Each structure stands twice: as C-alpha cells, then as structure tokens.
Amino acid sequence: VKAFQSLSSFDLAKPFGAWISKITANLCIDHYRRKRLTLVSLDAPMSRGHRQLRYEIDVSAQHGCVRREGLCEGNAVVFSSTDLDNPLDSPVLKVKYFGGKRGRAGHLRFEKSRPVLHQLLRHERCLKDHRAVIEACISSLSNTQRIDPSPTVLRDYSQAHLVNRMGERGENFAALVKKISGDADAKSAYVTWLRQLTPAEIDDVVVLYGAMDEPMFAIREAERDYPASILSDGTLRFAAIAAAFFQPDMPEILTIEEIENGVHPSRLRLLVELLKTQASQKRQVMATTHSLIVLAWLNQDDYKTTFFCKRDETTGSSTITPLSEVPRFLKVVEKQPIGDLFAEGWLEGAL
C-alpha cells in the first residue's frame, strides 16, 4: 500500500490511478503471505510522436519510498539514480540530472516519498527540452482507458448530455453516442459495425430522452425505436465497445476486460475483427479473454501479439509469454486447434 501511495502521487489521470488501486491488493497479499515481494518495479518503454522514451522506477514495498528512478530519450539520459547513491535510511533521493553544459551530469536531491518525474518537472534547473520529454512521458503513462461495459449501466440514462469519452462501466454511453452522431463519417462507420452484429437490419442508432432531457441509447429498425432498456446484454456490450473506438477523446492505450462476455458466440469473430482493424500505431488495444471461440478466430500473424498469462506458484509472480514463443506451439497448433490446447492445459504445461 505504501509503495502504491507513492506511485499515486504522479497526479496522473484517473485511469492510471484506478489501475494502481486494482493491483495493489494482490501485490500486498503476496507480500505478506510469501514475505518475498519487497520491491515494486515499473519499466515502461514508450513512443510519443517522434520521441522514443524509457522510464524506470523501483519502489520499496516495505518502506513506501522510491529506491531507483530514471528517464531516457533515445540514447540520451535525462536523469538517473542508483541504490549505491541512496542509503535506505535517507529521506532524500540523490539523482544525476544531465542538464549541465555538454550534457554533463549534476546531482539534484528530491523527496523519496514521491517520484522524481513530477518533482523535476517543476524544478528551476529543469531545461525546457527536458520538460517536454517529462510531460510526454507523463501523458503516455496517464492516457489509458479501461472499459468493462455493464449492461445494467448501459441500459440507464446518461447523466451528461455530451461527452468525449465514456466511463469504465459504460457511464454516459448514450451521451457518447450522441456526440458520435454529430460527426457524419464517424456515425456511418459506427452503424456499419452494428449492422453486422444482428441478423435483423439496423437502420440507425438514435438517442431517446427522458423527462429531464437525459439521453438513452436506442437502435432503429423498420422505423421503430428499440431503447437500451429492452436490448440484449450482448448487443449493448458490443455497441459500447464499438463506440469506444469512435470517441473524440481517444486514449493511447485501450484495455477491454473479458471481451466475450454477453456476446453471442456467432458474433465473436466480428468482435475480434473490430479490435484488429481499429488498433493502429497511435493506439494500442489490449483485451483479455478465456473464450475458446475467440482463440479459434486468431491466425498465425496474431500469435506474436497474443499472450498467455500464467502464475508462477514458486515465486507468486505472473509470466506473460507470446504464443509464438511458447515451446513447440507453432508446430503443435498446425495439428490441433488452439482452443483445444488451451482447454486441455497444454499451454500451461509447455511453460
């Protein structure tokens, strides 16, 4: 808890803070049960326009302080620190800052209780170019959206009238659809995806209004409007996930939990295609699944970007391995469907 309280002082956007809070419990359980987890590490390479950045930080889970931190742009070091320069009992983190003449490093001192990244941004000796690098790093770390649409939430009226991004559980979904409808091209593309979802012809998506003009999502078929309150869970979840790709305020990283939930098995192929086509160099999409049907729609090119997650019972840590790097997988999958390999535990045994 102390470690992640320290990380949360980034002053980043809510999605990153929410992500931190969700994994804190599991990390702390492991720490107290196994007495092994003493350091929480984050190693984040990222691209921001033409910038290639790498940010690293180690936080002590026992003492709730930063032990090591560094930021690089390409091959150039912006700042760095090591354990050798920083005794554990010192309240100050000594950092090499490469902001002197000819890139020479000078030492700066910062509070250990907060990441250097945010402190250096406001420091009087921070160069203008380095401020831009730090701001780019913070923006990349914070510009993440997690969605796990709840049919109960999607059936309800939106509290806002117009939004550029919906909530994690689908809050203000109808308000987002209303915003999308204001862009003819975006709406046309959105409706095209929905038309492939159901055998019945969808003529349009519309927004209905309650007594206080609060919006509710609806689809139009044969000149009749069907409000969200009577639509199936699968239709609503697919509509919400599809709408996420047409948000005016698109995140750089979009994560989707259990993409198969509520969606008819015959329409999972469509969902997989949606994720593939909407991902781009500027947008990273990560989705979790336990569905054998979703796996069945993967092709060989997808194996490099599909990862099998397994918990190590000895260390308590999780291993994340691309399917393409699972021993013998590429040969075995030619003879046996990937869904069968997953269901029978072959993948877990291979690792």
Architecture overview:
By secondary structure, this protein is α+β, with helices and mostly antiparallel strands. It has two domains: 2-142, no CATH class; 145-297, 3-Layer(aba) Sandwich (Rossmann fold). It is 33% helix and 24% strand. The strands form four sheets. A six-stranded antiparallel sheet has the order 1-2-3-4-5-6. It has a three-stranded parallel sheet with strand order 7-11-12, with helices on both faces. A three-stranded antiparallel sheet has the order 8-9-10.
Total strand segments: 14
pLDDT averaged over residues: 84
Strand content: 15-25%
Q: Kindly provide the radius of gyration, computed on alpha-carbon positions and rounded to a whole number of angstroms.
A: 24 Å
Q: Strand order, main sheet: write it out.
A: 1-2-3-4-5-6
Q: Classify the fold: give the CATH topology of the largest domain.
A: Rossmann fold
Provide a brief overview of the structure.
The protein has 351 residues and is of the alpha+beta class. 33% of the residues lie in helices and 24% in strands.
Map the helices and strands.
Layout: H1 2-7, H2 14-34, E1 39-48, E2 51-60, E3 65-73, E4 76-80, E5 92-97, E6 106-111, H3 116-121, H4 128-142, E7 144-147, H5 151-154, H6 173-181, H7 184-195, E8 204-209, E9 215-221, E10 224-227, H8 233-244, E11 253-256, H9 268-278, E12 284-287, H10 292-296, E13 307-311, E14 318-322, H11 329-332, H12 338-343, H13 346-350
Parallel strand pairs: 7-11, 11-12
Antiparallel strand pairs: 1-2, 2-3, 3-4, 4-5, 5-6, 8-9, 9-10, 13-14
